[in-house]
Write a structure and sequence with these properties.
Elements: E1 10-14, E2 20-25, E3 31-36, H1 46-61, E4 70-74, H2 80-97, E5 101-104, H3 106-115, H4 133-137, E6 166-172, E7 178-184, E8 197-202, H5 204-212, E9 219-221, H6 223-227, H7 229-234, H8 251-260, H9 278-289
Helix pairs in contact: 1-2, 3-8
C-alpha cells in the first residue's frame, strides 16, 4: 500500500486501548503495520508485544531504527498502564537514538482514520486497512445483509456516498464512562483542527447530551461507540456495525497525523489521562472518611 507522508519514515504506535497497534510509514510510500487485539478475557499484550512488533516491522522494511525520521506515539486518553507503557517506550527509543518525537491524540487518530480516503494500492504484508466513513455510509454489497436498526442510528443516516458532517471518537473508559471528542469531517485529518467536542471523560447521560449538540447523523466510532450504542443512536449519531474496522485504533492514522505535527521535547510527551487513576481516587476517598 502506498501513501504520502511527506517522504518521511515514521514509526508509530498506540497502546491506549487493550489493542497493541504499530505502523511504519516509509519514505518510498510503503506502509506496514502489526496489531494484536486480545481475545475476551485475555490481558493486553502491550508489554510483551510492543517492542517485538517494532523490531519486526523494521526488519521487514530493511530499515534501522536510527534511520527513522520521527516517532509518533498515541498519548490517549486510555488505560493508565497501557499509556505508560507506550509513552515510556516512545521516549526511551527517541532518547536512545536521538529521534524527534510527536504526541498524537488517540481520539483524534480514531476520527482521522474514519475520514481517510479509501486505501488506493496494493496491500503490504501485515497491513490492516480500515473502512472509511464514506464506505461505512455506502449501501451493502450484493449478498451482504443490510444494517439493522441496532446497527444504524435511530435518526436518518447520510445519503449513500455522502460523508457524515462530523466524526465522533468514543473510547470505553471503564467505570461506566466514555472518553469522547468530535471533529468536523472535513477537518478530521488535520492534527491542528479545533474539535467540535473537546476530549472529555463523560457519563452515558453527558455523552448523549454532548452528541445532541453535534450535527445530526454524526458518525460515532470506537469501542466506546459500541458500548454506548443505545445512548448514541438515541441522541442522533450513526454507529457502524459491531465488526467494522472503524472501531479499531490503528497506528496508521498516527503516521498521517504525526507527519504534520511539530516534534516536542521528550519530557513534554506525556499521557493524556482526563481523569484521576483508581488508586488516587481510592486514597482521596479514604482521606475523606478519616
Amino acid at each position: 500500500m502506498r501513501d504520502d507522508f511527506d517522504a518521511m519514515t515514521i514509526l508509530a504506535f498506540d497502546t491506549a486501548t487493550p489493542a497493541t497497534s504499530v505502523a511504519l510509514a516509509l519514505d518510498d510510500g510503503r506502509l506496514l503495520s502489526r496489531r494484536h487485539d486480545p481475545a475476551p478475557g485475555e490481558r493486553p499484550g502491550h508489554q510483551e508485544l510492543l517492542l517485538g512488533f517494532v523490531v519486526a516491522l523494521l526488519e521487514e522494511a530493511g530499515v534501522e531504527l536510527p534511520a527513522v525520521d520521527r516517532i509518533a506515539v498515541g498519548v490517549g486518553p486510555g488505560t493508565f498502564t497501557g499509556l505508560r507503557i507506550g509513552v515510556a517506550t516512545a521516549r526511551g527509543l527517541a532518547h536512545a537514538h536521538d529521534l524527534p518525537l510527536v504526541a498524537v491524540s488517540t481520539l483524534h487518530a480514531l476520527a482521522a482514520q474514519a475520514a481517510a480516503p479509501p486505501a488506493a494500492a496494493d496491500q503490504a504484508a501485515g497491513e490492516h486497512p480500515a473502512a472509511t466513513a464514506d464506505q461505512a455510509a455506502a449501501p451493502p454489497a450484493a449478498g451482504e445483509p443490510a444494517a439493522t436498526g441496532d446497527q444504524a442510528a435511530a435518526g436518518q443516516a447520510p445519503a449513500d456516498g455522502e460523508a457524515p458532517p462530523a466524526l465522533l471518537a468514543v473510547l470505553d473508559a471503564r467505570r461506566g464512562e466514555a472518553f469522547a471528542a468530535a471533529w468536523p469531517h472535513a477537518a478530521a485529518a488535520d492534527p491542528r483542527a479545533a474539535p467540535l467536542l473537546a476530549p472529555a471523560a463523560l457519563s452515558p447521560e453527558a455523552l448523549a447530551a454532548a452528541v445532541a449538540e453535534l450535527p445530526a447523523a454524526s458518525l460515532a466510532v470506537g469501542d466506546g461507540a459500541l458500548r454506548f450504542r443505545e445512548q448514541l443512536q438515541a441522541a442522533g449519531a450513526v454507529v457502524p456495525a459491531d465488526g467494522s474496522s472503524l472501531h479499531r485504533v490503528d497506528a496508521v492514522a498516527h503516521c498521517r497525523l504525526g507527519a504534520a505535527l511539530e516534534p516536542l521535547a521528550r519530557d513534554e510527551v506525556v499521557p493524556t489521562y482526563l481523569r484521576l487513576p483508581d488508586a488516587e481516587l481510592a486514597l482521596r476517598r479514604r482521606g475523606e472518611r478519616e
